[in-house]
Design goal:
mainly beta, about 10% helix
């Protein structure tokens, strides 16, 4: 067990990202390398799940692009992630929001948490 813990500690890239939860609307800035060129692209959507632990932790972000749902899975410790910005804090009662895949229109909207 100690060997596994050691490997997780070594793999962990010290990415200082804000803490977010499923239901939050976030913007993920990540680096795309195309040949010799490098650019930063932003993927904005709702977090539908966070899974794994330690260095293998991943999160899935879902957005609607032209009436088509697009999901992207990001490893939390990826060096390609430049930054994460929280746009809205959602109010949900589940950890995995797979039910959003079947909903369309206003039903697919996540209520915003009222910050006091």
């Amino acid at each position: 067990m100690d060997a596994i813990k050691f490997v997780h500690e070594q793999l962990a890239v010290k990415n200082e990202l804000p803490s977010f939860r499923p239901g939050d609307n976030i913007s993920v800035s990540y680096k795309i390398v195309e040949g010799a060129k490098e650019r930063v692209q932003i993927f904005r959507g709702d977090v539908i799940q966070i899974k794994g632990q330690g260095a293998t932790k991943m999160f899935t972000v879902r957005k609607i692009s032209g009436n088509v749902g697009v999901e992207r899975i990001f490893p939390l410790s990826s060096p390609a992630i430049v930054g994460v910005e929280i746009n809205k804090v959602g109010k949900v009662r589940r950890a995995k929001l797979y039910y959003l895949r079947d909903l369309v229109g206003k039903k697919a909207k996540i209520k915003e948490k009222q910050l006091k």
